[in-house]
Inverse folding.
């Protein structure tokens, strides 16, 4: 989609730091973690999306002559470093949780282990890709959850750019949307495209009924008529019913047909429209609604008994209205010494939530064996082993007196991080988008209902293992010993 090369999709200081590593002969390997600190929309979880585009970015990361010439013109970069960039190739390893997974604050959903000069370059691009798609997927999931089913992503014209509209559509499908109006997204990602017609179609004909008849004749298998151009009940629904009746009398057997409303009191109008359709014998006609919908309005409409089967959701989904950014970060957690041992690193801050977790880490997801629901997340140091037949104690890493013992035999445990790149080569094949949607649905089924509610959801416990907690506190004490 982009008209620019992703090699320079980075912040300027990434390149100046890279030149610094190059000039200083710093070839040490490092570990960077991608994580976020707070769930969007004040929810209890988020949806991980964008991994396929991260893979594509890393696979194709190289600098051509045009890039080198541009950097030379800045007057900042020296020729030896520019020559290094000309021959750049990623040689490290990347680990990530599966795309479509539910995720929680502070856990490393992507881990980059590579020479520090290589890993530094990727920060801005990886965050740009993952932050955007995870934001939209997390918003779309709420919309889908409120609706139950039948959500159509209609946001292209309101998205902040072609890329935002297209990759936002991808993210919405991952989160459970049934389809998108964005045709290029359909082409790129092999996802369902759908839509009806605009008010302009109606207005271009001598009468509303003629417009409906023409559309139904053109698209007999998928005929959804927009009924609010003039008067929804007295004109639109009435004319739609007449067209449906006349065409059925002529032998019409549509696969899908019905009406769409884009304005007005959707609860009142759809209930009245349902009565009119049913009275005319069109009990199988669907009613679709659109018009500045979001999860809260959908939930309200359903509580009012609105008769809506499918939902066209645009602006508030594709822009994640109410939560404009995701807030993922990319932080150094370890560097390798001359003996090849990774030395943990920690960032300290006056803000407790900005203190990082040091070391080479993994994520263990702990499930209740009987229900399959998530009981806790455990961030641990690589190499730690846990036996689900034995009792497991987890504790709040801040309020450490809050402890729970999970009885052996009552839980299952899963290591979430998978190898994506190994020694510079991609060893992971990304599923197609509809497969990722299935992954996401299964992941969402592992959440307790209390964690999915919109108001005051129950947070999922994200705990640190005892060895990681001990390491973090030891490093904090050392910092404050000065």
């Amino acid at each position: 989609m982009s008209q620019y090369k992703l090699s320079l999709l980075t912040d300027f200081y990434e390149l100046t730091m890279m030149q610094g590593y190059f000039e200083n002969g710093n070839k040490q390997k490092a570990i960077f973690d991608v994580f976020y600190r707070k769930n969007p929309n004040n929810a209890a979880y988020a949806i991980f999306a964008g991994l396929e585009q991260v893979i594509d970015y890393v696979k194709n990361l190289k600098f051509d002559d045009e890039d080198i010439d541009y950097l030379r013109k800045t007057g900042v970069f020296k020729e030896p470093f520019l020559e290094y960039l000309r021959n750049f190739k990623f040689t490290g390893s990347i680990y990530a949780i599966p795309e479509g997974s539910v995720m929680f604050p502070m856990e490393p959903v992507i881990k980059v282990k590579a020479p520090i000069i290589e890993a530094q370059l990727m920060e801005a691009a990886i965050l740009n890709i993952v932050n955007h798609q995870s934001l939209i997927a997390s918003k779309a999931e709420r919309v889908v959850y409120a609706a139950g089913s039948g959500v159509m992503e209609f946001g292209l014209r309101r998205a902040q750019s072609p890329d935002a509209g297209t990759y936002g559509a991808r993210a919405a499908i991952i989160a459970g949307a049934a389809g998108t109006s964005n045709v290029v997204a359909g082409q790129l990602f092999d996802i369902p495209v759908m839509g009806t017609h605009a008010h302009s179609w109606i207005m271009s004909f001598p009468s509303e009924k003629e417009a409906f008849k023409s559309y139904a004749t053109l698209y007999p298998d998928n005929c959804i008529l927009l009924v609010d151009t003039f008067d929804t009940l007295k004109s639109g629904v009435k004319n739609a019913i007449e067209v449906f009746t006349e065409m059925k009398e002529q032998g019409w057997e549509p696969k899908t047909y019905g009406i769409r409303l884009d304005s007005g009191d959707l609860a009142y109008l759809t209930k009245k429209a349902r009565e009119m359709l049913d009275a005319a014998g069109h009990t199988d006609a669907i009613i679709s609604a659109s018009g500045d919908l979001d999860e809260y309005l959908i939930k309200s409409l359903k509580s009012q008994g609105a008769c809506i089967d499918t939902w066209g959701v645009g602006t508030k989904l594709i822009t994640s209205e109410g939560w404009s950014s995701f807030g993922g970060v990319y932080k150094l957690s370890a560097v390798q010494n001359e003996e090849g041992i990774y030395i943990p690193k920690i960032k300290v801050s006056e803000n407790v939530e900005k203190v990082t977790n040091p070391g080479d880490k993994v994520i263990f997801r702990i499930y209740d064996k009987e229900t399959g629901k998530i009981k806790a997340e455990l961030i641990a140091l690589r190499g730690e082993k846990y036996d689900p037949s034995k009792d497991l104690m987890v504790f709040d890493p801040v309020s450490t007196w809050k402890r729970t013992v999970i009885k052996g035999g009552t839980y299952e445990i899963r290591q979430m991080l998978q190898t994506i790149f190994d020694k510079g080569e991609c060893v992971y094949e990304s599923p197609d988008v509809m497969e990722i949607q299935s992954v996401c649905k299964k992941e969402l089924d592992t959440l307790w209902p209390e964690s999915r509610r919109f108001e005051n959801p129950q947070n999922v416990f994200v705990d640190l293992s005892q060895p990681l907690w001990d390491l973090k506190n030891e490093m904090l004490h050392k910092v404050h010993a000065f």
In short: The longest helix spans residues 123-147.
